Amino acid sequence: MAMDITKSMTTAASGMRVQSDRMRVIAENIANASSTATGANGQPYRRQIVTFKEAVDEATGASIVRVDRTTRDTSDFKMQYNPSHPAANADGYVMLPNVNPLIEMTDMREAQRAYEANLNVVDAARNMMARTLDLLRRG
User: Fold this and answer.
1) What is the DSSP-derived secondary structure letter of residue 69?
2) CA 111 – CA 113 distance, rounded (Å)
3) For residues 118 and 107, what is the distance between their CA atoms, to the nearest angstrom?
4) Which residue, 26, 67, 68, 86, could crosslink 51 as a Cys pair with Cβ 3.0–4.6 Å?
5) How do residues 1-11 score in pLDDT, each as one tens digit?
6) What stretches of 26-62 adopt beta strand conformation (E)?
């Protein structure tokens, strides 16, 4: 039974780790949501996306999740007419990042909830182990 609880904690801890990484990337996306290129020929910040993959923890044999990679979103940049901007092209349009703050905030909330759910699993497993030890000491 202790091994099953350890596996549960290992799996939940891996979930917390990847959601933390995901939140870091989302925060970077939000921070760069209004950045532009420094010149007319440059490109602005491109949104990043974290992908996960399933793995097995070698120490416990537990199923875990890991960050597979962080990729750049290839969707189109937004275009805004602002001929006085230093990054404006010949037609007066400025390329803006392909970051939608509303989507990023929604993703952040989802990552936060997943992190909290995994934290609850770790807490429950710890409580179960502590209660089991108390029962064994009394018995």
Assistant:
1) E
2) 5
3) 17
4) 68
5) 567 888 999 99
6) 48-56
